[in-house]
Design a protein that fits this description.
6 helices; Rossmann fold; alpha/beta; 142 residues; 4-stranded parallel β-sheet
């Protein structure tokens, strides 16, 4: 079995990655991170996309999403993040609407946690490898 851990937000980038991985023969374990993001449309869409892919490929190919709540970790940092958005961040590709959703280095956090799942699932399922996939927008600054 080829297993892929996909950090899946419900947005365009990670949903495209999930479709690509499925078309390339992987079993997908989606992981979704709730970090208090204001864009709740993606959180709601994530469930819809998982249901769609499970209907198309089967629940044996698209496992139920692991939903991780990071609110207690992010909440104490919220004032710092808000200040960073207002004063310390300069990305010409983000307009005001997208800037309010920006979370510094979130994908690095997500891929690190996905790596934990990949390593432990490889061990417990006796797999030689588990691949981590993450969809990142081309205007990501790191």
């Amino acid at each position: 079995m080829k297993l892929a851990i996909v950090s899946h937000s419900g947005g365009l980038d990670s949903t495209t990655v999930m479709g690509y991985v499925l078309e390339n023969g992987y079993v997908v374990q989606p992981i979704n991170f709730d970090y208090g993001q204001q864009n709740i449309i993606e959180i709601q869409a994530q469930t819809n996309f998982i249901n769609y892919f499970q209907g198309k490929h089967g629940k044996d190919k698209v496992l139920d999403s692991i939903k991780l709540d990071f609110n207690s970790i992010v909440s104490p940092l919220q004032n710092i993040i808000d200040s960073f958005r207002k004063n310390g961040f300069n990305n010409q590709h983000l307009d005001e609407a997208n800037l309010k959703h920006y979370f510094p280095n979130r994908n690095i956090l997500f891929v690190s946690i996905a790596g934990v799942f990949a390593e432990t699932l490889a061990y417990f399922k006796n797999l030689k490898e588990v691949t981590v996939y993450i969809g990142i927008h081309k205007h990501t600054t790191y």
